[in-house]
Amino acid sequence: xxxxxxxxxxxxxxxxxxxxxxxxxxxxxxxxxxxxxxxxxxxxxxxxxxxxxxxxxxxxxxxxxxxxxxxxxxxxxxxxxxxxxxxxxxxxxxxxxxxxxxxxxxxxxxxxxxxxxxxxxxxxxxxxxxxxxxxxxxxxxxxxxxxxxxxxxxxxxxxxxxxxxxxxxxxxxxxxxxxxxxxxxxxxxxxxxxxxxxxxxxxxxxxxxxx
Amino acid sequence: xxxxxxxxxxxxxxxxxxxxxxxxxxxxxxxxxxxxxxxxxxxxxxxxxxxxxxxxxxxxxxxxxxxxxxxxxxxxxxxxxxxxxxxxxxxxxxxxxxxxxxxxxxxxxxxxxxxxxxxxxxxxxxxxxxxxxxxxxxxxxxxxxxxxxxxxxxxxxxxxxxxxxxxxxxxxxxxxxxxxxxxxxxxxxxxxxxxxxxxxxxxxxxxxxxx
DNA sequence: GGATGTGAATGTCTTCACAGCT
DNA sequence: AGCTGTGAAGACATTCACATCC
Lengths: 211, 211
Known about the structure:
- The structure is a homodimer.
- Chain A is of the alpha/beta class and about 210 residues long.
- The first copy, chain A, has helices at about 5-25, 30-40, 45-50, 65-75, 90-100, 100-105, 135-140, 155-165, 190-210; strands at about 30, 55-60, 60-65, 80-85, 105-115, 125, 125-130, 130, 145-150, 170-175, 185-190.
- In chain A, the strands form 3 sheets. In chain A, strands 8-5-4-9-10-11 form a 6-stranded parallel beta sheet. In chain A, strands 1-3-2 form a 3-stranded antiparallel beta sheet.
- In chain A, strand 2 (about 55-60) and strand 3 (about 60-65) form a beta hairpin.
- In chain A, helix 1 (about 5-25) runs antiparallel to helix 4 (about 65-75).
- Chains A and B meet through helix 1, helix 5, helix 6, strand 10 and helix 9 of A and helix 1, helix 5, helix 6, strand 10 and helix 9 of B.
- Chain A binds a DNA duplex (22 and 22 nucleotides) through helix 3 and strand 2.
C-alpha cells in the first residue's frame, strides 16, 4: 500500500468524528464540502484524502454517512478494541484514565504501573497500581500493543526499552524526551510545553507585526 | 518577515531543549549534526531551520551553546514570562497546573475558572477556583494573552468567544472540538484520542503488511 | 580540516480544474 | 445540476552539494 502522510491520517480521524455527529443526528449523506468546512480544510483535500483508500462517494450525491464512517473506522484500525498499558499513576495518568474519549474509541486502559512505593498496591481510578518491576511478568504474552507513558523524563527511555522487549508496538509519550526505539515501533509524542511555545512564537510575531 | 512553517518552529523548540541540556553540562559549542541526531532529523535541516532567522554559527566550529539558546528563546518569544488563564479545574487542568514544564519555560497559570458550583471557591493547586461568570470582569484589561481550555466539548466554543472578547490571543485547546475563532487568534489543538488513532492506524498497517 | 550557510534539485503535499457519474 | 474522483499544476518542505569561512 502507498504510504499515506500523517497529516492525511489525522484528517481522516477528524472526518470520522464529524461523521459520527452526523450519524447521531441521522443525516443520511454528507458532501466533501461539508466535512471540509468543519475540519478547516478544502473539499478537494477531503476527496484526495479519501481517494488514497478507495472511492466511497456517489457523484452528485456525496457520501453515505454510516457507510463512510464504517470505512474510516476500518482504515484507522478502530473496528477492534485495544488494551492499553499506562505507565505512571500520577495526575496526568489519572486524567487520561478518566478521559472518556479513549474508551469511546475502543482504547481501554487495563493496567497501570508505577515505581513509587507510595502508589503501588493502591486502588486508583478503578485499577490497582502495579509495581513497575512486574511489567515483564505481566506483559510477556499479553495482547497489549499500545502503551502510554505518563512519567517524567527520568526512566522514560528505560521503561520504553522494556516495553518494546515485551512486545509493545506503539507508544504515546508524554515524557519530555525524544525516545529512541527500533524502526518497527511507532511513537507519538505529546509535548504540551512545546505546544505553548508554538503559541508564544505566534504571539511574538503578532507583536512584531504591529510595531 | 517570511512565513516559517510550523514544523520548523516545532523543531526550533526542540533544539532549544537540547541546547539547555548542553548548557547545564557546560558544553561550550555544538554542531548542527549533534542537534540533528538528538532531534531525529538531519544537519542540513537544522541549518536550514536556523538560516530563516540569521547566521548564528561559526564555520568549522559550530554554534555557541548559550548564544544560540538565547537567540532561540528570543525567536520563540520566550524571553518574557506569560500569564496563562486556565479554564477547567478538573483532572486534566490539575495535571497541567502541576506540570513543571510550563513554569520552567515562563508559562504561569495564574488563574483558573470553572462553572461547577462544587468547585468554585475551593482552594486547588495553590489557586482559588473562580466562577466562570467572573471571566469578563477579571480579564478585561488584564495582560493575559494565552488561555488553556481543559473542559469538555460542551461550552468550549462559548467560552472561547468570551475569551477572545477579553483580549486572549492564543488558545491551547484540549476540548475535542474544532473551535472557530477570528483569523488573528492562534489555536493549537491537543487531541489525545486522535493521537491514539494515529497509532491505531500504524498498528493496522503493520498487521496488514505481515499477512 | 571541519562545519556553516545557501542556491539548486528533489521530494512531498495541497490546490486546481475538469471529465465522468447519478 | 451537483458532487465525486483524479491527473496535472502549483506550493511548500527537505535534502544535496559545495563555496565559504574559521
